[in-house]
Amino acid sequence: MHDNVIVKQRVNAPVEKVWDAITDKTQMKKWYFDIPDFELALHSEFNFYEPGNEQKFHHHGEILEIIPNSKLKHSWSYPEFSKEKTLVKWELKPDGDGTEVTLTHKGLENFNHLGANFRHESFAEGWNEIVTQSLKTYLEN
Which residues of 69-89 are buried (b: 16+ CB within 10 A; e: fewer)? Predict the structure, then answer.
């Protein structure tokens, strides 16, 4: 059984503006994570920590698919804790004068052995907050 998180949100911003927000590290820092080594290039790898000074969880990703203004797919892993990887996919579809954003985080069952911080509920809560609050607020203000 696959353990996926899917979050859909319509934002009042054109696809190009949403694409820039999810692929420009300067903008990402304002609503998402600070990812200094993020480069929008196929097979580019990036690393980041959750906000704050604790730096408990090292996140690692590799960009696997880029369709400008439509889809960004990358791996998501925690190399200090596990060799397992999951997949994060951002999909953008024009919706009138706005954009429907769909985020899918696939393969979370791969992290079940890591404990409470890596449970489906934690990811669902985190992605919901990121997509429906942080990204939406950033783009609409």
Answer: beebbbebbbeeeeebbbbbb
